Amino acid sequence: MSASDPYTLPRGLPVPADDGAADHLTGAILPDLVLSSSQGAVNVRDFDVLYVYPRSGRPGRPMLPGWDDIPGARGCTPQSCAFRDHSAELAALGATVAGLSTQGLEDQVEFAERNRMPFPIVSDEWLELGRDPGLPTFEVEGLTLYKRLALISEHGRIVKVFYPVFPPDRNAQDVVDWLGRNR
Asked: Is position 159 within any domain?
C-alpha cells in the first residue's frame, strides 16, 4: 500500500473527536445556493443527502504533508466510493445525493469521471457553505478545507448531521441505515 493511494485507508488513523463544530446545523436551512459540479450547476438545497469531505486525492500524487496525522482528514475517496456503491439503495429510499468539497471544478470533474460517480460532485471553492449555514473547517498548508460530515435535509432543512464521520468508508451505510429507519 502506497502512502499516496487515495483508495486505501491506512491502519491507525487518528479518530476525530466531536468538537461541537456542527452542533448548530441540525434544524438549519440550507441556502438557496447554486454551485458548479461535475454534472453542471446544481442547487445545494435540492439534495436530501449532502456529504462533505476535505479534499480527494489522485493516484500517484502525494497527499498534503501530515495529512494522515490530521484526525478525520484521510478517507475522502473511500467515503465517496461508498456513497457511489450505495447509490441504488439511496435512490430506492428516495434520496438525492451530492458530494461536496472546496476543491475547484477541474478537480471535481476529474474525480467524478475517474470514479464513475453517478451523482454531482460539487465545488464550493469559495466556502459559501462555510458562511451559511456554517460548515466546520480546518486549516492545512495554507488551505481552508471542510471537516468531513454528512447532512440529511428535508425541503432544505437539515434534519440529521453525521459528525464526526469515522471511519469515512462507513458513512454511506450509516446514512442508508438512518434513512431506512426514518423515512
From this structure: yes
CATH number of the structural domain spanning residue 68 = 3.40.30.10
Give DSSP secondary structure letters for 124-174: -TT-HHHHTT---EEEETTEEEEPPEEEEEETTEEEEEE-S--SGGGHHHH
Cα–Cα distance for residue pair 26/140, rounded to 1 Å: 27
Helices (H), 7-122: 76-85, 87-92, 105-114
Residue 62 lies inside a defined structural domain of this protein: yes
- Asked if the structure places residue 18 within a domain, the reply is no
pLDDT, tens digit (0-9, with 9 covering 90-100), for 22-46 = 999 999 999 999 999 999 999 999 9
Show the cell assigned to 122: 460539487
Q: How many domains are there within the chain?
A: 1
Residues 61-76 pLDDT 10s: 888 899 999 999 989 9
